[in-house]
Amino acid sequence: MSVVLSDRVADVVAAVDKLRAEDRLLTDPEMLLADAEAVIGLITGLQAVLVRRLRDVHFHPASPELMGRSTRNWLTEEQLLAGPEASRLMRLVRYLPSRPVTEAAVNDMTISAAHAGAILTALNTLPAALRDTVEPHLIERARWYPPEEIAGFVDELLQALGIDNNGDIRRERRHNNRGLDVAETLHGNRSVSGTLTPEVGAKLQAALDAASQPSGPDDDRTPRQRRHDALGVIADAFTSQTEPSFTGAPRTVIVTIDLATLEDRLRQAWITTPFGPLSPATVRRLACDAELIPLVLGGHGEVLDIGVADHQFTTAQRRAAYHRDGGRCVFPHCRNRRIELHHIIFRSRRGPTSLDNAAWLCAYHHWLVHEGRWTLQRLKTTGDYLWTNPNGQQLIRKLGTA
User: Fold this and answer.
1) 3-state percent breakdown (helix, strand, coil) of the chain, nearest 5
2) Which bin fits 100, alpha (ψ -120 to 50), beta or left (φ > 0)?
3) d(CA 353, CA 351)
4) Counting beta carbons within 10 angstroms of the beta carbon of residue 287, is it exposed (0 to 12), middle (13 to 18) or buried (19 or more)?
5) Are residues 358 and 376 in contact, defined by beta-carbon separation less than 8 angstroms?
6) Are residues 153 and 12 both part of a single domain?
7) Quick check: is 51 in a domain?
8) What pLDDT sits at residue 261?
9) CA–CA separation, 343 and 282 (whole Å)
10) Which of 273, 353, 356, 387 would be 311's cystine partner, CB 3.0–4.6 Å?
């Protein structure tokens, strides 16, 4: 599928190509410096354009089908942007329209996208009643100072406004400053930093104290090491429920259905459940990796038949598919947690419960193949996975690139 650009973007691409080709012809240092300054200004302008384009992409109803993933994941997995950079862009996409004064400053190239992100962060630490008053001052500050100096300037403004350090506004700002950052460092290690509220801090401290007790007289770990290991124990208590199931189906679906609807095979009917109505596509997705027990009712609600659980993937099949798929969702470049073992040929189409018909998927891409109008196939010659979006564009996930 050929890529089609708008005329204006195509002109910019051509201009950049021309600039790259002629980039080494200048020798005058004053001109070089002026060029560098102008290019920085162009980058600022292009950042504003990028945010607007990404906003249009993000909120366009056809985008999930075309990209096959969230906008942020598209930025990191397809465009290879760093995670923090992708998050910063998506934050501007979502929240910059709520601050039209700051958005106008970005579009006018008065401030950069990085300044806008710093301003949004600073404003979010303030009570809503003060944000409109403070915002123009932050924009003016951003014209002359780098983004990292925006947050500290808020305290100067509050002081100028005569707001007491110990007042409610200061306390609310301290509360809004709460947060936790986990960054990946060398060899998969993580660096943790952040600010906890007194309540959350007390809960975490109590949990760490309970889980970090020495295991016995031979436990030679330092207190710091024991707190680290205790954090792993605390995390295990939550994440143990989100790993893929190898010992059987992750859920059991008891299908209660009247005989007439069963005979009509649910081609268009929506299904009523205790959680609200579900479309046939949603029911098929939920039942894809489930143990199915049919319960057939007669015209007066009487039970006509209680079936036995139909075939599900065995433990051996689940483990073999997990090993073959590299422990990852089989959508190209997907980094989400894999939790569903999907029947490539649906069970409703008599797809076999076999290793060749199995593929591990994350929750989003399981939804995509059932309700997002994508199709998934395994190529007979190589065993690779072929994905096709509703417009016919195809992506391949090779088994050797898990």
Assistant:
1) 50, 15, 35
2) alpha
3) 7
4) buried
5) no
6) yes
7) yes
8) 53
9) 15
10) 353
Q: What is the reported pTM?
A: 0.57
Asked if pLDDT for residue 38 goes beyond 90, the answer is: yes
Q: How far apart are CA 277 and CA 17, in angstroms?
A: 54
The overall average pLDDT reported for the chain is 79
Per-residue pLDDT tens over the stretch 345-354: 987 777 888 8
What's the half-sphere exposure (Cβ side, CA atoms, 13 Å) at 268? 0
Q: pLDDT class for 154, splitting at 50, 70, 90?
A: confident
Give me the pLDDT at residue 262, please.
Answer: 44
**What is the number of structural domains in the chain?**
4
Measured distance CA(396)–CA(376) in Å, rounded: 10
pLDDT tens, residue by residue, 285-304: 555 555 544 555 555 555 44
Q: Which one-letter DSSP state was computed for residue 284?
A: H
Which residue in the block uniquely carries the two structure tokens 């073999």?
Answer: 320
CA distance 297 to 89: 53
In a domain, 216, yes or no: no
In one letter, which amino acid is 141?
A: R
Q: How far apart are CA 311 and CA 274, in angstroms?
A: 26
Q: Quote the tokens at residue 39.
A: 């290019």
The answer as to whether 300 is a domain residue is yes
